Amino acid sequence: MFHLARLADDTLALLLRGGEASAMAQSLQRFVFRSKVKLTVPESLPLGTGDAVETYAAYREGDAYVFGCGDHSMIAGAAHADDAWRLPQVRAGWPWLPNHALGALLAPAISLERLQAVSFDKGCYPGQEIVARLHYRGGLKRHMHCVVLSQHIAGGTVLHRNGDSNIQLLDVVHGDATFQALAVIDDGLMNSLEDASRIDTDEGIALHVTQSWSA
């Protein structure tokens, strides 16, 4: 999961939303054949929040990289790191993947179609056939929701209901005196509840569902 920005005719930048840059570069290197492509991993940069910039706009500003997110921007290489960007992105349904979720979630489960971040009929890429089949046949049974937690719990935690591991938390943010998070929840669990806006888990943690995305 990453932001992809064209900074110049011959330069692309990837800002990962979870995972390790070196591992990502090694995975991409396998697909470099005859093209004259060089993959480099720069030193880690502090990530901060900037002024409003149009969504999907990106540019370089000195030694920093600015990624537009609508009512705010993310700045890789900011003078001062902060987490102010996290809460609006959780509310908007922009996931940040914890280590436990890397490689474990398909595109519809984290609402990539809504973000215009996946194509089901363009080209051929690893896993495209499976992703496209699930999309067109409605076979995926897990979807993403924005929730308010009754107490803090680490991002990446798997929660259970009636013994089943049917809730995968992604990023968890403390904001407005509440703990808000993105969670991938099994459709079967949501459909079984009389009131799908509240889920009581086996761990004693309650989830109040405030927003849901089908794709």
Automatic annotation (TrEMBL):
Entry superkingdom: Bacteria
Species assigned in the record: Dyella japonica
InterPro entries: YgfZ/GCV_T_CS, YgfZ/GcvT
SUPFAM superfamilies from the UniProt entry: Folate-binding domain
Name recorded for this polypeptide: Folate-binding protein YgfZ
